[in-house]
Amino acid sequence: MSERIAVEAAAPYEVVVGSGVIGELTDVVGTDVRRVAVIHSVAVRERALGVRSVLGRDQLEVHLVEVPDGERAKSADVLEYCWRVLGESGFTRSDVVVGLGGGSTTDLAGFVAATWLRGVRFVNLPTTVLGMVDAAVGGKTGINTASGKNLVGAFHEPAAVLCDLDVLQTLPRPELRSGLAEVVKCGFIADANILELIENAGAQSVLDPTSPILAELVTKGIAVKARTVAEDLKETGGAEGGIGREALNYGHTLGHAIEREEAYGIRHGEAISVGMVFVAELAHRHDLIDADLLQRHRDVLASLSLPTTWAGAFSPLLAAMRMDKKTRGDQLRFVVLEDLGVPRILAGPEEQVLRDCFAALAGGLR
Ligand SMILES: NC(=O)c1ccc[n+]([C@@H]2O[C@H](COP(=O)([O-])OP(=O)(O)OC[C@H]3O[C@@H](n4cnc5c(N)ncnc54)[C@H](O)[C@@H]3O)[C@@H](O)[C@H]2O)c1
Ligand SMILES: O=C(O)C(=O)C[C@@H](O)[C@H](O)[C@H](O)COP(=O)(O)O
Ligand SMILES: [Zn+2]
């Protein structure tokens, strides 16, 4: 059984979730296509070979473009390598890029597609929970630079996203957990039912790649992402009363800074987990949320063994946060909650309050 979630973009597309849905790839790649470049990470090489043999049957010329695992793929060097392969293969505007891998791979593949010939079609085949619920959907593509995370990129929507749950069976457990941090994020910003599902089911079944509960959480996370991006495709502002796509950045201001500070040795979802506790502290200290909602952040994340504390110096993080895309001029802006499911922007908090929130993090429980 599969679920189909529509994303109402300028060119609407579907996110298909279920076991075996990779079988739809030939259809979504489409006709009148001569070449397909499958940009994939090393870890999913076997899957890439499978994709090549399926697409190759239709007389397509399939180029496998293997890139490093994880964040190392999101570099100017790897981007340049992909451009070179496309150039040497004579890749035209009617050809298609396929991104096969986790969020790092699909962020890169999407940016390759956004920039080659000023934009070609691309299809995402995410192979991590995080890729399925977040990175592969919504059209944010890009790479990192020495100054920080995702600083160069483009909005470029995929033509389709196929989330084949079977691929999760090889995903290492810490990666699965990391993806769940973005699912928890969706719970706090938009769909409290996600939190209840996790709290009631318990970690064992949530972390089981074959469990119906994980499939349900993935589908619900995608639904939040699809709804949010459809309202504000390019992060220019939400509908009346809302903050639009910036809501999806919950926990990311500090989270991205931690990733950079750790030289990407921490997983994205782990850093975002710490970042969500930080902004919950911030909201609590501004009397926006009560102590119970703050504690609920720690509890649900800890129940999945996601980190809720981080020990290190604050000043480098503050400097990195100034490079966050939500910053305007010298003013830092954070996504916080004013209630469960009600995100808002908190602009220009006092530096001392930020330091106090950080100290509370480093010290664990308040
Ligand atoms: N564009 C967006 O909207 C968006 C949203 C969220 C996150 N992101 C980005 O996504 C990235 C994180 O993505 P991620 O958590 O998927 O990590 P990842 O892509 O770095 O993958 C994690 C590791 O798992 C391996 N892997 C992937 N699929 C596997 C599988 N099925 N079996 C075995 N190993 C597998 C990868 O090769 C890698 O080593 C970050 O760069 C983050 O900034 C982007
Ligand atoms: O889709 C979005 O919008 C998000 O913010 C989703 C985030 O989970 C994701 O990590 C995104 O890549 C962060 O974007 P950035 O604009 O802060 O780089
Ligand atoms: Zn994220």
Describe the structure.
This protein is an alpha/beta fold. It has two domains: 2-170, Rossmann fold; 173-362, Dehydroquinate synthase-like - alpha domain (Dehydroquinate synthase-like, alpha domain, Up-down Bundle), CATH 1.20.1090.10. Helix content is 44%, strand content 19%. The protein has helices spanning 25-29, 45-56, 76-89, 103-115, 129-135, 173-189, 192-201, 203-206, 212-231, 252-261, 268-285, 291-303, 315-321, 351-362; strands spanning 2-7, 13-18, 35-41, 61-67, 96-101, 121-126, 140-145, 148-155, 160-164, 333-339, 342-347. Strands 1-2-9-6-5-3-4 form a seven-stranded mixed sheet, with helices on both faces. A two-stranded antiparallel ribbon has the order 7-8. A two-stranded antiparallel sheet has the order 10-11. A hairpin with a 2-residue loop joins strand 7 (140-145) and strand 8. The longest helix has 20 residues, at 212-231. The protein starts with a strand and ends with a helix. The site of nicotinamide-adenine-dinucleotide has 30 residues, from helix 4, helix 5, helix 6 and helix 11. The site of zinc ion has 5 residues, from helix 11. Belongs to the sugar phosphate cyclases superfamily. Dehydroquinate synthase family. Catalyzes the conversion of 3-deoxy-D-arabino-heptulosonate 7-phosphate (DAHP) to dehydroquinate (DHQ).
